[in-house]
Amino acid sequence: MIARVYVGLKPGVLDPQGRTIASSLNDLGFEEVQDATQGKVIELKLANGERDLVKARVKEMCEKLLANTVIESYRIELDETEE
Amino acid sequence: MIARVYVGLKPGVLDPQGRTIASSLNDLGFEEVQDATQGKVIELKLANGERDLVKARVKEMCEKLLANTVIESYRIELDETEE
Amino acid sequence: MQTAVIVFPASNCDRDAAVALETHTGKAPHMIWHKDTSIPDDVRFVVVPGGFSYGDYLRSGAIAAQSPVIKDLKQKAEAGLPVLGICNGFQILTEAGMLPGALMRNAGQKFVCKISRLRLANAQTRFTKLYDAKHEIDIPVAHHDGNYFADDDTLRRIEGSGQVVFRYVDNPNGSRGDIAGIINQAGNVLGMMPHPERAIDPLHGGTDGSNIFKSILGSL
Amino acid sequence: MAGTSKSDDITLDVIAEHGISGAEYKIILDRLGREPNLTELGIFSVMWSEHCSYKSSRRHLGKFLTTGKRVIQGPGENAGVIDIDDGDAIIFKMESHNHPSYIEPYQGAATGVGGIMRDVFTMGARPIALLNALRFGEPDHPKTKSLVDGVIAGIGGYGNCVGVPTVGGETNFHAGYNGNILVNAMCVGLARADNVFYSAAKGVGNPIFYVGSKTGRDGIHGATMASAEFDDDSEEKRPTVQVGDPFTEKLLIEACLELMATDAIIAIQDMGAAGLTSSSIEMADKGGVGVALNLDKVPQRETGMTAYEMMLSESQERMLMVIQPGKEQLAFDVFEKWGLDVAEIGTTTKTGRLVLTHGGKTVCDIPIAPLADDAPNLNRPHTPTAPRDVIEPSDIIEPQDYNDALVRVMTDPDMTSKRWIWEQYDRHVMADTMDSSQSGGDAAIIRIHGTNKAIAVTTDCTPRYCYADPYEGGKQVVAESWRNLTAVGADPIAITDCLNFGNPERPEIMGQFVGCIDGMNEACRAFEYPVVSGNVSLYNETNGVAIPPTPAVGGVGLIPDLSLIKTLKGAKAGDTLIMIGE
Ligand SMILES: Nc1ncnc2c1ncn2[C@@H]1O[C@H](COP(=O)(O)OP(=O)(O)O)[C@@H](O)[C@H]1O
């Protein structure tokens, strides 16, 4: 089973990377870019299991390691097709 | 209009970051984790425009700046709902 | 002899590079701001210095590689102007397509600052001809993204044509083939992760970096 | 949090939430002649917090020796300034970022480094060295590993990016820090003695400039957080932590130093804790002027920010400066060249008041003097630490196996090599590092660029001695610093300090604090080794258990000639070892 975890800065938290990306895209002539944010996607290959249980475990991984919930929020997607 | 660009290492490029995540998750007792990879998501807020044109522009941004195609591949998602 | 150092926002070894150039030429280099569109015609050698251009945001060297001055640097390098990229400078040159391959996050995930011992893989280049080929040299590294990657074909090609110039004796970052520095096919653009400008004064703890500057400047 | 509300929103609860006591509120009513609104209450609250007003410590810090023949500026400015001959000056300070680093170790430590660098380049110095003093809990405590990893990466991540070498520090592990780690960062900068910048906003009608990053809602109430102890709920209640942007900091350094080379700046102050509030009030108070700011002009990262939020935001990488009239365009040009946000947000006035307008309305109009003059200056009760039993050498049982004893000593986490830490710091950038952590010497050595002289720098503290006997421990801290400098061939000049203690409302903690200061001060006077800057971090406790008393000091000495440098390099087998002292 594959779990995809998206981790991004919470709204309101300074995102220096995103800001720098947006302004260099503007400098390169992409004026349509109004804002950019950068986050990460962590893709986990997991042993199969009951969907709800797996999700609960991944949630625990996020809280413990993958995200720092002081400044980051996360979203989990489970994907059974790619087993 | 929102564009989401997913950038990840090409298959065959060693991903030490992913490996470190997998082994730290194992160390924390999440033995079900068999493998992990880490990529980034860049979310762009763009001026509205014709879908195909916007997509072509975002592709150009990826080729020029957002991805290094020597090591990375990318995928673009457009999302009109969040305007 | 007139030399130049290119300065990007958050370059931070620009002064160190300038000191190294002045020490070896007796003349202060031009400091060229990344927004300038051309490198003065009297410049005979250019250093792209280390640092964290644009904070290393997105990917190290990626944004700097798009700077206005890079276009002219590329053209002049194609016409034969010698260029040395150190650390972030090496990252910028690969991102700009002036050197093959890419520099990824260190395999150990951590920033690494230490004295690294290097083997001369090619002591015949314009940058290395004053070194004794059998000799190993000590030059500090300080980087987070120094893990050199090139695909198999590229690797075979650069190995075959003597483009690998320096190798780590004790690989600090996971680089393929222990590669610490490479040169372009024409032999006038060198990129390396270790910092030769931090090893030119006995008080630095060693002067093994000096011969790079002496070699290339002597060839002009 | 609501904005510029009417004064009838100021309930007893709101006053208490702002840490304002009944007696303090009476002073506010008296000075204003009316009730404050929420913005005004917020401003009093941060200015009178422990963090900004030093209310528990001020009277004791006043005892320190702070002058000397090489002291150009002692405590009271952003950092201390000393003379190292030939028109060169060294500007340095140490500061804590303990609470934020516990909550978000990477960003907490990173912004700690950023903040201390701003204190130094604000005064006109180019930062040339960074050091730190770190205390963590036991190695096998479940939180320790991730705290250590995050803090070390954060210190390196910020310092390496800005391009200032991190050359030394100290790291200890002890159960006393399990719930409250210490992250103290020190920055040392080099300036010309005749071009040092101060924070007094002299002159009326001069433009006030805002430079750096935009203001967001970060860390609102950070200064009050640093002034209250942790409990189990703190992790829930915690306010947003700031994210550091070393790239902007680097640009800010270059831009400020470029403008400082002209005569455009009258006064300058970084926006640290309590950002716009404390920077504008300190500048005005020192210059004896008033300040009028138009908050609509403040560069903002988020929409709909209230006056309260803007005044209390702790967004990083921001500076406030008073510019010479006529030089506005020059200032705009320099900051725009470096790609920084810059705005003229107000002027100095002769009213002696802080007047803020927002959306066309006056949202704050208070006299500045009471914010400083009437700041509480408490005489908290303190009971001296009871003397411990003296341990006679003969009381100690001789080890059976000396090899085993040696192995135990050498494998103690405090004793083992710290290579895994300092290899993550760029120690060589700027190419003037003559000796650093790597050699294991007693102090790091930095050459003064382009000269034949150097400075030596070190951070030190042995909390166990301070715990056993604050007075003797305090003496020892300063003496160790002095010895470490002399051991590398330097003449010690002055120190900065970072006094980390528990809750000052407990007399026994105040007793430790006062004991340490008295001991340190005695040593400072004996060595003529003055304190020129420093920082106090109180309320370092969790669930009522205080950290061991940890008055870290950072020392700076001069090596007038590089040939006088003494290091551990070059020792060979067969050399003679000599022990000096008792
Ligand atoms: N946090 C740190 N940052 C930088 N250097 C450090 C740090 N901790 C320890 N060091 C360096 O490691 C060396 C050994 O440190 P330490 O074990 O504290 O020795 P000592 O007791 O001799 O000061 C010193 O040179 C010191 O500067």
UniProtKB/TrEMBL annotation, chains A, B:
Its main location: cytoplasm. Pathway: Purine metabolism; IMP biosynthesis via de novo pathway; 5-amino-1-(5-phospho-D-ribosyl)imidazole from N(2)-formyl-N(1)-(5-phospho-D-ribosyl)glycinamide: step 1/2. One of its GO terms (cellular component) is cytoplasm. GO terms for biological process: 'de novo' IMP biosynthetic process. Its EC number is 6.3.5.3. Gene3D superfamilies: Phosphoribosylformylglycinamidine synthase subunit PurS (3.30.1280.10). The keyword Ligase applies. Signal peptide: none annotated. It catalyses: N(2)-formyl-N(1)-(5-phospho-beta-D-ribosyl)glycinamide + L-glutamine + ATP + H2O = 2-formamido-N(1)-(5-O-phospho-beta-D-ribosyl)acetamidine + L-glutamate + ADP + phosphate + H(+). One of its GO terms (molecular function) is ATP binding. It is found in: Cytoplasm. It is an enzyme of class 6 (ligase). InterPro entries: PurS, PurS-like_sf. Keywords: ATP-binding, Cytoplasm, Ligase, Nucleotide-binding, Purine biosynthesis. Transmembrane segments: none annotated. Part of the phosphoribosylformylglycinamidine synthase complex involved in the purines biosynthetic pathway. Catalyzes the ATP-dependent conversion of formylglycinamide ribonucleotide (FGAR) and glutamine to yield formylglycinamidine ribonucleotide (FGAM) and glutamate. The FGAM synthase complex is composed of three subunits. PurQ produces an ammonia molecule by converting glutamine to glutamate. PurL transfers the ammonia molecule to FGAR to form FGAM in an ATP-dependent manner. Belongs to the PurS family. Part of the FGAM synthase complex composed of 1 PurL, 1 PurQ and 2 PurS subunits. This is Phosphoribosylformylglycinamidine synthase subunit PurS. It comes from Algimonas arctica. The gene is purS.
TrEMBL record, chain C:
Pfam families: GATase_5. Its EC number is 6.3.5.3, 3.5.1.2. Transmembrane segments: none annotated. GO terms for cellular component: cytoplasm. It catalyses: N(2)-formyl-N(1)-(5-phospho-beta-D-ribosyl)glycinamide + L-glutamine + ATP + H2O = 2-formamido-N(1)-(5-O-phospho-beta-D-ribosyl)acetamidine + L-glutamate + ADP + phosphate + H(+); L-glutamine + H2O = L-glutamate + NH4(+). The active site is at residues 87, 195, 197. It comes from the Bacteria. Pathway: Purine metabolism; IMP biosynthesis via de novo pathway; 5-amino-1-(5-phospho-D-ribosyl)imidazole from N(2)-formyl-N(1)-(5-phospho-D-ribosyl)glycinamide: step 1/2. Its main location: cytoplasm. The keyword Cytoplasm applies. Keywords: ATP-binding, Cytoplasm, Glutamine amidotransferase, Hydrolase, Ligase, Nucleotide-binding, Purine biosynthesis. GO terms for biological process: 'de novo' IMP biosynthetic process. GO terms for molecular function: ATP binding; glutaminase activity; phosphoribosylformylglycinamidine synthase activity. It is found in: Cytoplasm. InterPro entries: Class_I_gatase-like (IPR029062), PRibForGlyAmidine_synth_PurQ (IPR010075). Part of the FGAM synthase complex composed of 1 PurL, 1 PurQ and 2 PurS subunits. Part of the phosphoribosylformylglycinamidine synthase complex involved in the purines biosynthetic pathway. Catalyzes the ATP-dependent conversion of formylglycinamide ribonucleotide (FGAR) and glutamine to yield formylglycinamidine ribonucleotide (FGAM) and glutamate. The FGAM synthase complex is composed of three subunits. PurQ produces an ammonia molecule by converting glutamine to glutamate. PurL transfers the ammonia molecule to FGAR to form FGAM in an ATP-dependent manner. This is Phosphoribosylformylglycinamidine synthase subunit PurQ. It comes from Algimonas arctica. The gene is purQ.
